[in-house]
Amino acid sequence: MKVVYNNGTVGEITDKAEELHVIRHTAAHIMAQAIKRLFPEADFAYGPANEKGFYYDVDLGDTKLTDDDLARIEAEMKKIVKENLPIKAFALPREEAVALMKERGEKYKVEHIADLPEDATITFYQQGEYIDMCVGPHLTYTKALKAFKIMGQSGAYWKNDKNNKMLTRVKGTAFATQQELDDYLKLLEEAEKRDHRRIGKEMKLFML
Ligand SMILES: [Zn+2]
């Protein structure tokens, strides 16, 4: 699988776990781009890939996302994939990095830069109109993202600190192929059914 590293070079990776991580990272940024298109006031915090997929914590002001909004975000992601935007990486000296993020109204990213060590190289990824700070690597084109789904939302505090503002965590998952995604969703559904049966049984016992 082709990936673009944060120094701008394109390389090839073959390790499956590594591939999945790159796919999910790229999906998180494409989701952020979709959210930004639909909610221009969106201000992004952290958006990592994890063992279940990926998420992005976002400050939407007073806006609460509905299920319909989540469907719209997923549809916009599909549009971005179809646009097949090239994904490019670039580095900036700290002051310019701060200026770029300030100019784009990304206050959490500015705070994040302040937390990085003095000698850190600050790198960005751009696809179309969207720029995000990240160490990468990512897929080289948005169309290389083949299978993804928005899984829901929850609340999350900035930097995990309950004294900070509560952000919206939008969650998704992504796989290399549609088949793998379908298999994963089926597994989840079966686990949920088992849980319901178990809870049902326990309630019955409880009521006897
Ligand atoms: Zn990334």
Q: In terms of topology, how is this protein built?
A:
Blueprint: E1 2-4, E2 10-12, H1 16-38, E3 43-44, E4 54-59, H2 67-83, E5 87-92, H3 94-103, H4 107-115, E6 122-127, E7 130-133, E8 138-139, E9 147-157, E10 166-175, H5 178-207
Antiparallel strand pairs: 1-2, 1-8, 3-4, 4-10, 5-6, 6-7, 9-10
Helix pairs in contact: 1-2, 3-4
Bound molecules: zinc ion.
Zinc ion binds at residues 25, 29, 134, 136, 138.
Q: Calculate the mean pLDDT score and round it.
A: 95
CATH fold category name of the largest domain: Threonyl-tRNA Synthetase, Chain A, domain 2
What is the CATH domain class of the largest domain?
Answer: Alpha Beta
The largest beta-sheet arranges its strands as: 3-4-10-9
Largest sheet: 4 strands, antiparallel
Q: What would your notes on this structure say?
A:
The protein is an alpha+beta fold and 208 residues long. The chain has 2 domains: 2-176, Threonyl-trna Synthetase, Chain A, domain 2 (Threonyl-tRNA Synthetase, Chain A, domain 2); 177-208. It contains 5 helices and 10 strands. The chain has helices at 16-38, 67-83, 94-103, 107-115, 178-207; strands spanning 2-4, 10-12, 43-44, 54-59, 87-92, 122-127, 130-133, 138-139, 147-157, 166-175. The strands form 3 sheets. The protein has a 4-stranded antiparallel β-sheet. Strand 9 (147-157) and strand 10 (166-175) form a beta hairpin. Helix 3 (94-103) runs antiparallel to helix 4 (107-115). The longest helix is centred in the last third of the chain and has 30 residues, at 178-207. The radius of gyration is 19 Å and the shape is globular. The model has no long low-confidence stretch (mean pLDDT 95).
